[in-house]
Amino acid sequence: MSESRAEVLAGAVVLAAAVGFLLYAGQQTAMGPQGGTYELKASFRSVEGITVGGDVRLAGVKVGTVTSLKLNPETYFADATVAIQNAIQLPVDSTILISSEGLLGGNFVELQPGGMPDILAPGDEIEDTQGSISLIALLMKFVGAMAGDGSSSDSNG
Length: 157
What we know:
There is one protein chain. This protein is α/β, with parallel strands linked by helices. The protein is built from 2 helices and 8 strands, in the order αββββββββα. The chain folds into 2 domains: 1-32; 36-141, no CATH class. The protein has helices spanning 2-28, 135-156; strands at residues 37-44, 55-58, 61-71, 78-85, 95-100, 107-112, 125-126, 128-130. An 8-stranded mixed beta sheet has the order 7-1-4-3-2-6-5-8, with no helix packed on it. It starts with a helix and ends with a helix. The chain crosses the membrane at residues 6-25.
């Protein structure tokens, strides 16, 4: 009987540790409650590489998360909603863009503050946007340009 109690006790400890880990992970990511934030909207031509829950950064520091991504059927642009910390007050001429962490890194949403004295209010839309740039498309353009240069020099020779 004591063997059964030991197994139940060990199972309870493992279960408590798992619940504690999930709570900690939820607080460290966007899964936790969004207290102390306000929402801003933006419309992008492409949000490739961005997902709901992704980072929103200002000067490389996480200041919010992506809360919604949906296709606008009228404009065929991707409408994004981001939750920004209340302490971050952005000028109305700020820019929002999709940046990459490098060749092998993921994408994130980057904020670049403007210089106007007026501040964006909760629910406002950031007008100045730049969507993601496809690395494959850039490589194809580069290869196409190189092939075009090489063939023209061969035909002139």
